[in-house]
Amino acid sequence: MPEYKLIYFNARGRAELARWIFAYSGIPYTDERFENDEWPEKKKSIEGGKVPVLRVDGHTLPQSLAIGRFLSKKAGLVPEDDLQAAACDALVDTIYELMTEMYKFTFPEKSEEEIKKPKAEYFTTHLEPFMTRLNKRLGEKKWFVSDKITWGDLAIGMFFGEMKGLYSEKLEKFPSTTCPYQQS
Ligand SMILES: N[C@@H](CCC(=O)N[C@@H](CS)C(=O)NCC(=O)O)C(=O)O
């Protein structure tokens, strides 16, 4: 078994999906976290200067979604069917887009007044239409893409678990999407 080390801030962010995949699969790894004030020094040792990165026996893999897909293959969380595998990719890409938008007003360096409009628009224009489609497609099914759990399901759990902690009132209308998942 290779030695895995995941390097990221001491936060959920773009490393959390990889942590969920490790936790689900039981693959051992080192979860190396650092605080914000350590980042300028740490950045010097990271090729490309961005995190998360995954070190695999000395090789370095950047980009959170490449890391997620790589680990999911190892963990049997990518469907064998190419179309289903692509559906998983599309789902995870969409969730990451929503997550990126949400972070812009959730941990902003702007005033309440400045984020008021983008925040309101996010829920009505981005999140609710997506949740409506997702909730309808999930219905009574257990897993979103295939008849087995995939990394798309873990991404749903990861993102909506975080959102539930932050904006639970926005999710009450969508029980199929959020009920089976808990925040890690
Ligand atoms: N597309 C990349 C984005 C990586 C990224 O922007 N990481 C941020 C943290 S979420 C970072 O390293 N910020 C510190 C910096 O740019 O100095 C991914 O998904 O991994």
Give keywords:
alpha+beta; disordered C terminus; single chain; Glutaredoxin; 2 domains; 184 residues; 10% strand; binds glutathione; four-stranded mixed sheet; Glutathione S-transferase Yfyf (Class Pi), Chain A, domain 2
What are the SSEs and their pairings?
Blueprint: E1 4-9, H1 16-25, E2 30-34, H2 39-43, E3 53-56, E4 59-62, H3 64-75, H4 82-106, H5 112-138, H6 151-167, H7 175-178
Parallel strand pairs: 1-2
Antiparallel strand pairs: 1-3, 3-4
Helix pairs in contact: 1-3, 1-6, 4-5, 4-6
The chain binds glutathione (GSH).
The site of glutathione has 10 residues, from α3.
**Structural class, please?**
alpha+beta
SSE order, one letter for each helix or strand? EHEHEEHHHHH
Q: What is the second-level CATH architecture of the largest domain?
A: Up-down Bundle
Total separate domains: 2
Classify the beta-strand content into a percent band. 5-15%
Query: CATH topology of the largest domain, which one?
Result: Glutathione S-transferase Yfyf (Class Pi), Chain A, domain 2
The 3D shape can be described as flat
| CATH top level label of the largest domain | Mainly Alpha
Q: Would you report the number of β strands?
A: 4
Helix content: 40-55%
Widest sheet, order of strands: 2-1-3-4
- Measure the end-to-end span: 25 Å
Q: Return Rg in Å.
A: 17 Å
Q: List the bound ligands.
A: glutathione
Instruction: Give the biggest beta sheet.
Output: 4 strands, mixed
User: Which consecutive residue ranges, at least 5 long each, have pLDDT under 50?
Assistant: 179-184
* Mean of residue pLDDT values: 91
H/I helix tally: 7
